[in-house]
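We close this part of the discussion by returning to an individual protein. The amino acid sequence and the backbone structure tokens for this protein are reproduced below:
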Amino acid sequence: MLIFLCGKMGAGKTTKSRALAKERNAVLLCEDQWIETLYPDQVRSLQDYIKYSNRIKPIVKPLVQNILTTGTPVVMDFPANTIAQREWFRAIFSEIGADHELIYLDVSNQLCLKQIEKRRNEQPERNATDTEEIFTQVTKYFVAPSEEEGFNMVRISRNAYHESHD
């Protein structure tokens, strides 16, 4: 099974990915780790992120498919925040007939910004990219997944006041 996540910047995708990988005894692949390892200190803007993210996808896709064909579940900490990104995930699982699950972290902007501030304080190396300005820029492109897209989706809603699971 391929498990991937959708959620705004600061929604908790990495934290949830780690927990899911542990719960399901799955291989965890993290886009930030790939980019930082292959292109250290190169991401300084949204355009840089897009450039390097697109460079690693042709390497990652067959690797994930190979892992899935062994029967090993894979959790991908790569964003599924646009229709195009979700179609890339669809290609990964559908080409090999694997099961999938899309986890949608429906988190309020207010809570995302609080979590980004906390992360910036805990990881000062992220000060350049974990800002309200970048959050606003990235969020312009965010498209929540819809039932019409046909994914096996689990929605987890959170705001600053309460949490619920659909």
Notes: The chain has six helices and six strands. The chain has a mean pLDDT of 92. The first strand starts at residue 2 and ends at 6.
